[in-house]
Specification:
The protein has 18 helices and 17 strands. With about 700 residues, it is of the alpha/beta class.
């Protein structure tokens, strides 16, 4: 394979020396820790020059480096690399457009190479990580990549002509539904548009993952050929790629988001199912009650906790969580320094707190080891295979029955129906373009709230010209996720213990009952931040980002900063929606999902209150300084997307019935977060799994 050609600023020796000198002003030596070039940032720039940074070199970095050299000679009579550091800093510190843009671009790419270089093994001892106090692996951890049994995957042409059930999507919902159906003896085809990815395939790239997707995602979809589009409030449509924030991407691999999630295993609160009854219906919202209650779902929560594997304290959060049949199969993590500090502060405030439940092995469980408490849980696969998702639990159970055929790299084009209102199968296309029709007695959609809605809309018939289940006009509407709120606190002494997964103490008392707002949310300490994530969003707003002062802010601040945050229960809005793009097609010629909408003002008010509560908590814990996270107003579907095929008793106002069956169809079901009426004040994955179990069980009774 030919080596990509370097831009002139890196290929020309004189200009390369300028790049090296400028990089060493962004991250200097002089404090006992390496400079940028000491951590081989130039090697990083070389590797990314023709791909991730190509546009920056063309538009900003290349012309800027040339200008920097010429300006140094004009002002000082010497090349930039030969100048004294103070003179180099003066040139980089100019407020004129060129030096300002150049400096910002240099800060971006140099700190990427210093704190998050994708070209080096993330387990490798790295002085920049040691400097800030980040550990990818804990001392004495295991080999780092346990053998994971690869599932038997069928090619499209190997699938049968007909199945009892075709399940579209092998994430949280589809992975659970497939197990329930296969264990009931039904012949199941489980289809996943992503691929099975082993630990090494998911990778450890701090720049390309589902936590910080600056240049790509580590599970897909691939960056080319799988766009979505955004419709602005002014009616302009723009294309967005899978790693862009506007794409609202879910992981595209076997297990879906459960492959790379943090695994918070909360049950929705009883009041989450009756928001309209408790609060009324805010103007311009589509808030309504669920057709089921917490008590209806409680037995399924229990089954999922034990089947997938949850760790927690069944007695914690007793005043806000609903009644339980029994405790958790595994104990919660022992509290570390962060949890002890925040728990003591909560006690002084009179707040009830406890450990968050996690779908993570705290002890050996189900033949897999306990969590090694590494520093990269969210966005990555687990090096110990101790994080419990459908990929290593329920899907394996489904395949062991012999009743479930798994096919990956398969996209559902449309659901096929007859003239009598029955689904007859699914038209699919494989990655190589091979097309097939799979006949089915039942079809279960579990592709996530965006793609399930897209598929229903794309499957229009003469009888349902606006899309399957869309006679009420609700398919694709009420799209919601979670608007995250919280605060940071900077302490005088180190407070971060670096023990993964991170969340160890949570306050649920603000989920409901907050005067003056609708709903609320949960607050907990955050997952262990990646060094680059901390630089991007954890530093104080006025902290320096470059030079010795910027390096000191990272070195001192990383271990002295705590982040308390949590999801705000959104007030749904009908105009937040998924439609079929009229202009944008994917690589197979299919219309892609077009997303639009903004969150309700009540959601912003509630999130603001939660941020204030987070600041109060951190202040009581001893933070010298606190500050809010910024709350956006745009669509917030993301990893917690929900609501586009909401359940209800009335076909005129909902898409599915309480069991997940699409109104008007005897054998078409939805078993993912699309059916959520509201999305809870906590992470929704346990509810997705519980509803999928309930839906699949209902199907087996038909």
């Amino acid at each position: 394979m030919p080596v990509p050609e370097l831009p002139p600023a890196l290929a020309d020796p004189t200009l390369r020396a300028v790049v090296a000198a400028a990089a060493d002003r962004i991250v200097p030596a002089g404090d006992g820790w390496p400079s940028a070039t000491g951590e081989d940032v130039l090697g990083y720039l070389d590797r990314e020059a023709a791909s991730a940074h190509a546009g920056l070199w063309l538009d900003v970095l290349g012309p800027g480096i040339t200008w920097l050299e010429s300006e140094a000679r004009r002002v000082h009579g010497s090349g930039f690399a030969a100048l004294a550091p103070k003179d180099q800093d003066r040139l980089l510190s100019g407020d004129a457009p060129r030096p300002h843009a150049l400096r910002d671009a240099l800060v971006r790419v140099v700190t990427e190479g210093y704190y998050g270089d994708a070209g080096r093994d993330a387990d490798e001892g790295r002085l920049s990580w040691e400097m800030v106090g980040y550990r990818a692996r804990q001392p004495g951890a295991g080999p780092g990549s346990l053998p994971e049994p690869a599932p038997r995957v069928h090619a499209v042409h190997e699938l049968r002509e007909r199945y009892d059930v075709v399940v579209v999507g092998a994430g949280a919902g589809g992975g659970v539904a497939a197990a329930v159906l296969a264990e009931a003896g039904l012949a199941v085809a489980l289809l996943e548009r992503g691929e099975w990815l082993a630990f090494a395939d998911v990778g450890t790239d701090h720049l390309r993952n589902h936590r910080l997707a600056r240049y790509g995602c580590n599970t897909g979809p691939p960056p080319v050929g799988h766009p979505r589009s955004l419709l602005s409030t002014g009616g302009d449509e723009s294309v967005t790629a899978p790693h862009d924030a506007g794409y609202h991407n879910n992981a595209s691999t076997l297990g879906g988001g459960t492959r790379v999630y943090g695994g918070q295993a909360w049950r929705f609160f009883p009041d989450d199912f009756a928001m309209a009854t408790r609060y009324g219906i805010p103007a311009h919202s589509s808030l309504t009650d669920w057709p089921i209650s917490y008590d209806d779902l409680a037995p399924y929560y229990d089954r999922v906790e034990w089947a997938v594997g949850a760790a927690g304290d069944g007695a914690a959060h007793a005043s806000s969580q609903g009644a339980r049949l029994r405790g958790y199969p595994m104990p919660a993590f022992a509290p570390g320094a962060e949890a002890q500090l925040l728990s003591a502060a909560a006690g002084r405030l009179g707040w009830e707190v406890g450990p968050p439940p996690l779908l993570v092995n705290t002890v050996e469980h189900d033949g897999r080891p306990a969590c090694e408490r590494c520093g990269r849980c969210v966005g990555f696969a687990c090096p110990a295979d101790a994080k419990n998702g459908t990929h290593n639990t329920t899907i394996r159970r489904a395949l062991r029955t012999g009743c479930c055929d798994l096919a990956t790299g398969v996209l559902a084009e449309r659901v096929l129906c007859d003239a009598h209102g029955s689904a007859t199968g699914v038209a699919v296309v494989a990655a190589d373009g091979t097309r097939r029709t799979l006949r089915a007695g039942h079809v279960v959609l579990a592709a996530g709230a965006v793609e399930t809605a897209r598929l229903l809309l794309a499957s229009a018939t003469d009888g349902d010209p606006d899309g399957l289940g869309n006679r009420s006009g609700n398919v694709g509407r009420h799209l919601q996720g979670h608007c995250y709120a919280g605060a940071f606190g900077l302490f005088a002494e180190p407070v971060r213990d670096g023990l993964g997964p991170g969340p160890a103490v949570a306050a649920c008392g603000f989920a409901h009952g907050n005067p003056g707002v609708v709903g609320g949310g949960m607050l907990a300490n955050e997952f262990v931040p990646l060094p680059l994530s901390y630089l991007t969003s954890g530093l104080a707003p006025d902290a320096p980002r470059w030079g010795l002062a910027g390096k000191e802010a990272m070195r001192v601040g990383y271990r002295r900063t705590l982040h308390v945050m949590g999801p705000t229960e959104e007030v749904p809005v009908a105009s937040c929606r998924v439609r079929l793009s009229p202009t944008v097609r994917d690589r197979f010629g299919l219309p892609v999902a077009m997303l639009s909408g903004t969150i309700h003002p009540e959601t912003i008010r509630t999130a603001t209150l939660l941020g204030e509560r987070a600041e109060t908590w951190l202040g009581e814990a001893g933070a010298e300084r606190t500050w809010h996270t910024q709350i956006g107003t745009g669509l917030s579907a993301g990893q917690h997307q929900a609501g586009t095929a909401r359940m209800g008793d009335d076909p005129a106002t909902s898409v599915t019935g309480p069991d997940g069956r699409v109104h008007g169809y005897a054998n078409l079901w939805v078993a993912d977060s699309s059916v959520h009426v509201t999305n809870g004040a906590v992470n929704p994955v346990l509810t997705v799994m519980a509803l999928a179990w309930r839906c699949a069980e209902a199907l087996t009774r038909t």
